[in-house]
Specification:
The model has no long low-confidence stretch (mean pLDDT 90). The longest helix has 13 residues. The strands form two sheets. The protein has a four-stranded antiparallel beta sheet, with helices on one face. A three-stranded antiparallel beta sheet has the order 2-1-7, with no helix packed on it. The chain has one domain. Helix content is 13%, strand content 42%. By secondary structure, it is mainly β. 17% of the residues are buried. Bound molecules: zinc ion (ZN) (2 copies). The site of one zinc ion has 8 residues, from loops. One zinc ion (ZN) binds next to loops.
């Protein structure tokens, strides 16, 4: 199941919509690999050609850029391989190129990506998808 959430900036009215969570259409890692950056796809193919992967976890998640204080939707994927090594794709902020991490705050407490104001509020409910 996934959830949609939309934010609107109280200052510039910039709208962002996010679909978060795991959709039913993704039943295996092969179905989700194309959602990852090309470099990560190559890395995964390489790992899987040599080793067993376990504990696969994935979902559409909200990431945050700690330096811009903005949110960025990305496809999260992690799994274990080898001697307890953990794989996760590296994502970067499209604005400042800083590393992104999984968002830790309420979506409405970040800055607007367009004008930088901290005035995000809920836009409207989007129907659950999958
Ligand atoms: Zn704004
Ligand atoms: Zn940034």
């Amino acid at each position: 199941m996934g959830d949609g959430v939309g934010t609107i900036c109280g200052n510039c009215e910039h709208v962002s919509e996010y679909l978060l969570g795991v959709g039913m259409l993704y039943s295996s890692i092969d179905r989700v690999a194309h959602l990852l950056p090309k470099g990560a796809q190559r890395l995964i193919a390489d790992i899987r050609s040599k080793q067993e992967i376990t504990q696969v976890d994935y979902a559409h998640k909200l990431y945050e850029c700690p330096s811009c204080d903005t949110t960025h939707p990305r496809f999260y994927l992690s799994f274990r391989y080898g001697e307890n090594q953990m794989f996760q794709p590296d994502y970067r902020c499209g604005d400042c190129w800083g590393p992104l991490r999984v968002a830790q705050k309420d979506i409405f407490s970040y800055r607007c990506r367009k004008c930088g104001a901290r005035q995000l509020r809920r836009e409207f409910e989007i129907c659950p998808w999958d």
